[in-house]
Design goal:
The chain has 275 residues and is of the alpha/beta class. Helix content is 53%, strand content 12%. It has an 8-stranded mixed β-sheet, with helices on both faces. Helix 6 (143-152) links the parallel strand 7 (136-139) and strand 8. Mean pLDDT is 91; it is low at 1-7.
Amino acid sequence: MPDSTAPSSPRVALIGFGEAGETFAASTNWRGHARGWDVLPERRAAMAQWGVESAANAAEALADCAIALSLVTADAALDAARQYAPLLPKGAFWCDMNSVAPDTKREAAACIGESGGRYVDVAVMAPVEAALAVPLLLSGPHAADVAPVLGELGFSNIRLAGSEIGRASAIKMIRSVIIKGIEALSDECASAAEAAGVFDEVMASLDASEKRVGWAERVAYNRERMQRHGLRRAAEMEQSAKTLLGLGVEPIMTRGTVERQRKAADRKHERIEAA
């Protein structure tokens, strides 16, 4: 396990230990500095492998922490802030790394602030496979203060987006309209091409108009991402739809992306059950 943090690293609480939490912990040495909590017993059991102490409950995970990373699912982000805000030590940072709408983050920030914590809107701007080098976009009144603390934990690609809570998440959510939307459109196009028996011809036609990456390769990549992460991405895109509605933009295509991402994940489960 790489040792990329100093002995003086701040105590960090990981709230949620899914793909992001495991990837971050696996790429650094937070042993002795990190406690975690997840509602799923199997995820709590996985923490020790990566040097994270498994807490018996959220209160124990948050006790004495200087910084908490909220890494739950999009639909649980606000509930986590509401439930755990009273447990956060006064003055501790709550870094909300979940992919949710600006309004959702502002609601969560109010909960954290009322209990004396310091809320930071964090947008994770690339797949977490990049681990601690993943681009993080920070916003909110405490963004500048938490940046060096995240640096001490080993995060190396941090940018400030401003002092307004919701600004970082607005950038992420609006960007997702294209990123996840293209995935969904490519899956829909490929499904129709396969049904018509013209997949190769359609991919070749698309290749003729854009040569950087072959469309068959791009479609395969998009489909793999959707099948693996479709449910999480659908939840994120629901938050993108909420973002657009808040801006007065009807999210017609974005709603379709929600359904397409969810259906891709459903197809994966159907194959597993049939096997």
